Amino acid sequence: MGKRVQEKLSTIVKEVKKETGKNKISILLDIMNCKNKYQANNLDYLAFQMYKLNNKERDTILTNGINEILIKKYNNEEYTTYFDNREQFLPKFHRYLLRDYLIINDNEESYQEFNAFCKTHPSIIAKSPNNLSKPLIYKPNNKTIKKIYNELLEKKLTIIEETTKQCNELSKLHPYSINTIKFITLNNNIIAAYLVIGNNKKELNNLEESGMFAPINLDTGIIDYLAIDNKGETYDKHLLTNESILWFTIPKWPRLKRFVTSLTNEVKEVKYVEWNISLDNDPYLISASSKPNHYLYQLPIHRQDNTGILPLFQKYMNKKGE
């Protein structure tokens, strides 16, 4: 076991001991039991508070191991590049984007295209093809276009898109970023949806950028749980804008769900997907992933009766013994 892993495990043991009063040996044995029986990694054990759950309740948790099985089972690797590489994602889903994009290369023709793109779109967002680097937002002018172009090539941020707008209702929550709705789908069915909201006047709403998220009631489009951020802080209102998050209603909710359902038919070989959507006059697609992040699904603050989301997944899995 590496030193870093040991340190993380030690931190988990201390936190669990503080909450439960259990000794180190019993905690370590329980962590190992959850790993072997429920395919839970150390982060699952801590984040989902599995140390507080009985065996029946633990059976309902979608753990990292089970999530990996779902990804492998329902997503044909030959087709996942449509989701995980933006050079293929953008043309495949172009009619759902509602924005212009450009792929740049290191040649004069590409620079001229970039120059024209910047003059048409005063604000742009640059991304890496594999989504591994943090996106950057620029507002180029005649004096900075060449400098920005060279910087983007150096950072390998070769996917250029015009920045988007959002409807007034979403903008009121945090007008400095595009606030998005993440949908999780399996076999053409919407399993869960979450509103992700920016914070601290940052232009990106990523959780790593102090953003927060809250689950959306699939039937009503209403947020009926508190929002939470990466530090575990909870919010019923946005601290910056004082807008209510709890009981916020997502605009055009039935239309958004129809939009997402239509997306699931584009690549039928990939059946388990996380979609990142926003809404202006119409819904539009921002990104998608063939490796959904299961940590959003079932945090203790968003669970009822200590029940995780796995039974809902099982409801929509293929039949015949799956």
Quick gist of this model?
With 322 residues, the protein is an alpha+beta fold.
**Which percent range describes the beta-strand content?**
15-25%
Major sheet: size, sense and barrel closure? Answer: 7 strands, antiparallel
Order of helices and strands: HHHHHHHEHEEHEHEEEEEHEEH
For this structure, the quaternary state is: single chain
Q: Kindly provide the radius of gyration, computed on alpha-carbon positions and rounded to a whole number of angstroms.
A: 21 Å
CATH class of the largest domain: Alpha Beta
The stretches of 5 or more residues where confidence is low (pLDDT under 50) are none
Number of domains: 3
CATH-scheme architecture of the largest domain? 2-Layer Sandwich
> Structural class of the secondary structure composition?
alpha+beta
N- and C-termini, Cα separation = 35 Å
Mean pLDDT: 94
CATH fourth-tier homologous superfamily of the largest domain? ATP-grasp fold, B domain
Number of β-strand runs: 11
- CATH topology title of the largest domain: D-amino Acid Aminotransferase, Chain A, domain 1
